[in-house]
Amino acid sequence: MKSFLDSHSFVKIVIIKQKNLQGCFRMSRRALDELIPTGLPQIDELVVGFPSDALILIIGDPGSGFITFMHQLLVRRAKKGIPAIYTSLDKPESEIKKDFIRFGWDLKDLKWQFNDLSPTAKQRQSKMLKWDSDAVNVVSHELFREIAEYRDDPSISTFDTCVNTLTFMLIQSSTKSVLRFINEYSAEIKGTGGWHFLTMIKGVHGIEIENLFSHYCDVVLDFAMTLNTETRLYERVLGIKKLPGVDSRAFPIEYGKSGIRPITLSKIQ
Fold first, then answer.
1. What does pTM read for this prediction?
2. Is the pLDDT of residue 15 over 50?
3. Is the CB of residue 199 less than 8 Å from the CB of residue 55?
4. What domains are defined for the chain?
C-alpha cells in the first residue's frame, strides 16, 4: 500500500504554486472574490478561503489536528479584532486554552464569549442550568441568546461562533433534534459576516451521519490519520470535501511551531 505522500494526487496538489490558482481550482472569478482568506498563507494557497456566514463542519480523527486548526483560524481572526462565541460541550475552558499556550498564541488576542457546557461545568454550575436537559436545548439557550446580544451590539459588525463538538450533542440527543438545531443555527448566523464552526469526531457516528450533517453545512473539512505501511508512521491529511466553487481535494499536513501547516513538496524531497 502506497503512502499518501507517494500518491500522484499529492504531487498534483503540492505544485499548485506553479499553476494559476483560479484555473487549478476551476473557480469562477465571482466565487473566488466571495471567499475570505484564512490569513494563513500556506493554507490559503491551497484552500483559498471560506465564504462569509459559512457553516463550517470540521470532521477529524483523534490526533489529526482538526480542533487545533479551528483554534488557529479563530486566533488569526481575533488578531483582526473579530470576536467569537465559543461553546464547548466536552472540555473546560482551561483545557481549551492549553492548545493555545502550546503554540505560543497570545491569549490577550482572544475576544471570546466562552460557554463552558462541559461535564466539569455541569458539576460546578449545576444550580445555574438544568444540566440534565437535552444537550440541544442547553446549547440553543446559551448560544442563540448570545448571538442576539452580539447582533444588538453596535460595536460588533462581524463575529464568529463555534460548537465543539457535535459528537457530544449526538450522544446526548436524537439525530432529529440535532438537525433541527443545525437549521436554527444556520438561520441565526446569517448576516453576521463571520465563520461558524461545528466539529465532529470521525467514526463515532458512522459515515451516514457524517454525510447527513455535511449536506447541511456550507463547508466540510475532513482531517484524517493515514498509516504509511512502509514507515509504520501515521500521516495527517486535510481533505477539502465541500467548499463552494472549489474542487474537492486533499493534501498532507503536519504540526508546526505555530499550528497546522501543509507539507510542501520541497520539504518531502
1. 0.83
2. no
3. no
4. 4-222+233-268 (3.40.50.300)
